[in-house]
Amino acid sequence: MTSPAPQAVLPAREHHLPAAGVAVLAVGLLAGLPEALGDLGRLAAVLVLQLGLVLAWVLVTGIQGFAGSLAVGAAAAVAADLALVLPERPALGKLLVVQGLGFLAAVLQQMLRRRRTDLVASLAGSVFLLTTVSSLAALLLLGRSSSGHGRALIALLAVGAALVVGHLVDVALPRPQLADDVPRGLLGLALAVAAGAAVTFLGRSAGGPADARLALVYGAALGGVAGLMALVGSYLSVEANADPDESVLIDESAAPWALAVIQAVLPLAACGPVALAVQTVL
Prior knowledge:
Distance between the termini: 46 Å
Number of domains: 1
Shape: globular
Strand content: under 5%
Order of helices and strands: HHHHHHHHHH
Structural class: mainly alpha
Number of helices: 10
């Protein structure tokens, strides 16, 4: 027997505008701190987003073992960053060690709880969190070299534009809906893809792919990933604000800011490895 689809209770403005605002702040942080402080600023920006996501995710999803889950998530974030910052020749493959050790730590943390209720769900949430904070660490490689700073900036702006355009369009016209009771529409997703492509096309001279067609493909890929992950964040937001008997939310006072953080940071996490992969191919 399947559970009914979550019923949205937040008005469209409250669902979309805070998330769009957090997306602007996150992109500004990722773009501004490296400009001012170089690699140290980039590390600080990524770590702030990782720790913010860890706290928001544990609050919203109701992972059991609150303090332990926060500790495992924060340790994984720091370890993932160090794995890409300390080596002279960093590579994403080094994150596999962090993932493996983090998984073991999450299993132990859940198994050592006195009351092991919701064990499977909590472990699944912990593993997803480990993957997400590791993906955010990939942003450290996106602009590590001096020549890569412009490419990183264009990629971040493309993702930010896709997120903001998608949210603003869906405030006014979330049609045709992509999922029942979730205020997300196909038009918003299409325009998010177009916004990402437009940014990389216009930013060709600033560090994006020089070829016009490749620039459009690059931006469309980033916009598409950002739009799809934003849909995931919106579904989680709707579910967390559903009937309290069905909600995964455990701290209603944390919902407004925590949900906005998740909606904004999840797409950035997904786009980091995608941006690196596409840049390698192109």
